[in-house]
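It is worth pausing here to work through a concrete case rather than discussing structure prediction in the abstract. The textbook approach is simple: state the sequence, then state the predicted structure, then interpret. We follow exactly that order.
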Amino acid sequence: MARRVYFDVCALSRPLDDQSQARVRLEAEAVEHLLRAVGAGNLHWISSEVVRFEIARCLDDDRRAILRLLCQNATEHATLSDAATARARDLRSRGLRDLDALHLAVAELAAAEVLLTTDDRFIRAVRNLRPVSSVRVENPILFGAEVIE
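Step two, the predicted structure:
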C-alpha cells in the first residue's frame, strides 16, 4: 500500500524557487523525486482546499498556473470540514500559524502519514505539540531519503 503524503505549498513551490542555494536545490530535487514516486504509484498524494486557497493567493501568475496544474496530479483532494476547522483552531491555540494549522488539521483528518514542508518553523512547532500529531511533519529531503528505490 502506498504511503499517504501531503505537500504544503512551500514544498510544492520549491522546484520553482531560485536554485542558487544548495539547500533550495536539494529540497527541489527531493520534491521532484517524491512527485515522480506519486506518478509511479509508490506514494498517495493528498492535496486539499487549503492548498488550492494558498495557491490562489500567489501573486506570480506563472507560478500560480504551474502549481494549479501540478495539483491536478494529486491522488486525492481533501475538503476543509467543520472538524478540520475545529482542529485547526486547537492547533492555532497551541502555537501553529493559521495556514500551518489548517494544513496539519486537514492532513490529520485525511489520514496522511507525513506532511512535507520546507518551513523549519512549522516543523519545530509540530515537534513541540503535546500530545503529538498523528501526522509526521518533515522536510522533503529527509522523507525523500526513505523513499529512494
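Step three, interpretation. The radius of gyration is 14 Å. The chain has eight helices and five strands.
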